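S.,

Sequence below, as promised.
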Amino acid sequence: MIDLKGKVAVVFGLANKRSIAWGIAQKLSEAGATLAICYQNERLQRDADELAADLPNTKTFRCDVSIDTDIDAVFEQLKAAYGKLDIIVHSIGFAPNIKNTVLQTAREDFRIAFDISAYSLVALARVAQPLMTDGGSILTLTYYGADKVFPNYNIMGPAKAALESIVRYLAADLGPSKIRVNAISAGPIKTLAARGISDFTSILTAVEQRAPLHRNVDQLEVGNAALFLSSDLASGITGEITFVDCGYNATGL
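The prediction came back faster than expected:
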């Protein structure tokens, strides 16, 4: 059994009980970690507070990762509350007007998608590094649409591809500090973000039909993988993309 007692984990991107971030938070909490859950804005605060109340030793903090002063402020709060950090979970992705094809994507929409979905990991890692005094784990969430074209995933595909490259470069940058950086490529899950993808059910159906396990994953399965990658059992793993998609990525036709 993985034991994270004495470890402090910060989870960014929790929107509601369907969030992948929530599945990860539950598993880290079950392993004994002290949790800080970060939500984007006041509109999401009530859900975050209600969910946090179900987990022991859990506090909530507001942070909009597109605003540097918000990031600086929340890490000052985290430093005051915990002293040091051990685990950072980045479960964030957004693209405005995602229904537009890549060809139709406006310059400003491109900038926002890459800023929030990819650059935010850089911004968080840079401020987290000084507080991860004993090393630790930084983990983000990606999707197979970074490698292959999926209908209606559109500009999020290139944004996730950028995120995966950032994982590798951050792993190199932070390795001397004994901080590991990895990503989980989760199969499709009915999250709040997934609602913005047109005909999302067709992707769910395709995975169920073609994946070796002939089903889709759920948040807690992603949470189990995150727990492993956040623990000392994964001490030799960094710069990697780990698929948790019932084997779908391994299939052809």
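The CA atoms of residues 161 and 203 lie 19 Å apart.

Coffee later?
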